[in-house]
Amino acid sequence: MTESAFRCLACGDGHSVAVHKAVADYFLPTGIRVDYVRCAACGMVQQYPVPTDVGPFYAAYPVHARKSLLQEVTRRILLSPVYYDVASLRRDQLLLDYGCGDGWFLDRAKRRVSAAYGYEPTAMQASRVAERVGVQVFHDVAALRAPLAGRVDVITMHFVLEHLTDLSGTFALLADLLKPGGTLHAVIPNLDNVEYRGFGSRWHGFDAPRHICFPNADQLKPVLDPLGLRLASDRFVPFPNTLAASLSILFTGRYRLLPFLAFLPLAIVWARLYPRGTRALTFVKHEN
Ligand SMILES: [Zn+2]
Fold it and tell me: From ligand 1's centre to the CA of 278, what distance in Å?
């Protein structure tokens, strides 16, 4: 593919500059290498070319696997400050967790709302989560529209946005599903940060090849403004896993569980003192 075929997933500009070439997969043994560029107009970093089939990136993706009790307890401690605050959900609300992973958040949120739904892009994962959590989990985006259009109060996307290959199409769908006044909550890795500047493409928040694009709130404006989605809050949240995994990659060449666990206490302290690697963006749907 030639450079002229580049098109920014956020602003649509056709010019880019190279950022990282042939970035290896430091998390899973896929052996896949991909390139990243920066949009010359808005500055967003994205994978180029944008993959047409991301299936091979997710073979044996542990985020989807069932967790041990120890992992469950650790997750609860580490993720609660990062994920949408379930205590703020109300009994009369309808929730969609878009990219619900193994259903951890849905399971915590489902009792606090009138109805909770999930979305995962593969039929197999969607049915696994539906069975485990006991809520409806969609895998076909078209199927979401009929029952949920204009009805959803809260959409959550925890570490999902960076995996998307079609920002405008996905957000157009999500904006259609939201009620006027509804909330879209996205948690994303933040490249404008000393950790990424230090580790470069070995920063675990980069997670090539699964992470496709790294927008910030400004770069999302051309996608979200026409849909009536306005930024309501943009804040840093403490997520220590990224630094602990990055240190494992630095010292052992890839992500490994034991070094990750050894570096985790240091990363927890760092993330509490200087939480810059992860952002939580909240948007509210306005009438156009
Ligand atoms: Zn751009």
Answer: 21
CA of 114 to the centre of ligand 1 (A): 39
Conformation bin of residue 91: beta by default, left when phi > 0, alpha when psi is -120 to 50: alpha
Long-range contacts formed by 134-143: CB under 8 A, 24+ apart: 134/110, 135/103, 135/106, 135/110, 137/100, 137/103, 137/106, 141/170, 141/173
CA distance 203 to 20: 12
Rounded to the nearest angstrom, the distance between the alpha carbon of 158 and the centre of ligand 1 is: 23
Tell me if 31 is assigned to some domain.
no
| Closest residue by Cα to residue 284 from 215, 188, 181 | 181
103 located within any domain:
yes
- Containing structural domain, residue 259: 67-285
> How sure is the predictor about 287, in pLDDT bands with cuts at 50, 70 and 90?
confident
Q: Give the H/E segment covering residue 238.
A: none
Query: For residue 257, how far is the Cα from the chain centroid?
Result: 21
Cα(162) to centroid(ligand 1), Å: 15
* Locus of tokens 């599903």: 177
User: Domain of 263: which CATH number?
Assistant: 3.40.50.150
The number of domains in the chain is 1
Mean pLDDT of 131-149: 94
Q: d(Cα 35, Cα 49) in Å, to the nearest integer?
A: 7
Q: Is residue 124 part of a domain?
A: yes
Give me ligand 1 centre to Cα 4, in Å: 14
Phi, psi of 217 (to 5 degrees): -60, -40
CA of 44 to the centre of ligand 1 (A): 6
- How does residue 231 score in pLDDT terms, banded at 50, 70 and 90? very high
Q: How many angstroms separate the alpha carbon of residue 219 from the centre of ligand 1?
A: 7
Ligand 1 mean position, distance from CA 43 (Å): 6
Asked whether residue 82 is domain-assigned, the answer is: yes
Ligand 1 centre from 86 Cα, in Å? 34
